[in-house]
Design goal:
Layout (H helix, E strand, L loop, with lengths): L5 H17 L6 H11 L5 H8 L3 H4 L3 H28 L10 H29 L8 H21 L11 H30 L3
Helix pairs in contact: 3-8, 5-6, 5-8, 6-7, 7-8
Organism: Deinandra increscens subsp. villosa
Main location: secreted
Pfam families: PMEI
Length: about 200
């Protein structure tokens, strides 16, 4: 699935980044507590707080903004990881007879499904950005976001499948570690979207 939605999403990204760098006021400890409390409802609360606490002044105790920032963070992580794996798989030399073909094929597949996850997370961010602007109900739009974030999580989970037949080693360890980290931020973003959706009645 290749989704093309650069403009709106770039607007979303720059809004998050601008809000984060200029911040309408200094973060207060209440803002920070809000993030900590919200993170308690996620599966990886420590990762959640570590990745989102810098945005407390942007979030300002708003569950919708928190979900949006979490999606932005998940997107950055997934995109970076997809690029990284793609580069790793390119660097396996096709003429090198001792190169493990299973391993490089697994890397390539992993990079592809991670790329699909990136598209789905990007689409989620776009939908968040236009909540209430499409004529559809916000609840319906949020259900789309939930669907895409769940799909992204599933794609990330399948990323390591191709490594089942690959011998243990540095590459495999590195891939599993990186995938696990992306799964954490994506799972957290989905949990925060779910939490936000619970507050929306319209
Ligand atoms: C949070 O901000 C501090 C200070 O600007 C920075 O050193 C740190 O790397 C940031 N953490 C994250 C996860 O972005
Ligand atoms: C993903 O990474 C590519 C390559 O570094 C970059 O050009 C692109 O802007 C990134 N996209 C997002 C949404 O971060
Ligand atoms: C790709 O991998 C090579 C070799 O491992 C490395 O030198 C290079 O910096 C990497 N490029 C990117 C964009 O990660
Ligand atoms: C060939 O691949 C193996 C396994 O990845 C690696 O250890 C070795 O350095 C490579 N040889 C060359 C000449 O690139
Ligand atoms: C390549 O992977 C297979 C399957 O795990 C393994 O049996 C074999 O030892 C590996 N070869 C190298 C050169 O690492």
């Amino acid at each position: 699935m290749a989704l093309q939605l650069p403009t709106i999403f770039l607007t979303f990204l720059s809004t998050v980044v601008i809000l984060a760098s200029t911040t309408a006021g200094q973060p207060t400890s209440d803002d920070s507590d809000y993030i900590r409390t919200s993170c308690q409802t996620t599966r990886y609360p420590e990762t959640c707080f570590a990745t989102l606490s810098n945005y407390s002044a942007t979030v300002q105790r708003d569950p919708g903004r928190l979900a949006m920032v979490a999606i932005h963070i998940a997107l950055q992580h997934a995109n970076h990881t997809a690029n990284y794996f793609s580069n790793m798989s390119r660097n396996t030399d096709p003429d090198n007879k001792t190169d493990n073909k299973t391993e490089s094929a697994a890397l390539r597949d992993c990079s592809e499904v991670m790329g699909d996850a990136v598209d789905e997370i990007r689409e989620s961010g776009k939908e968040m950005r236009r909540l209430g602007w499409t004529g559809e109900s916000v609840r319906f739009q949020l259900s789309n976001v939930q669907t895409w974030m769940s799909a992204a999580l599933t794609n990330e989970d399948t990323c390591t499948d191709g490594f089942e037949g690959v011998a243990d080693g540095d590459v495999k360890d590195e891939v599993f570690g990186r995938v696990a980290a992306v799964v954490e931020v994506t799972s957290n973003a989905l949990a925060l979207v779910n939490r936000y959706a619970d507050t929306v009645t319209g």
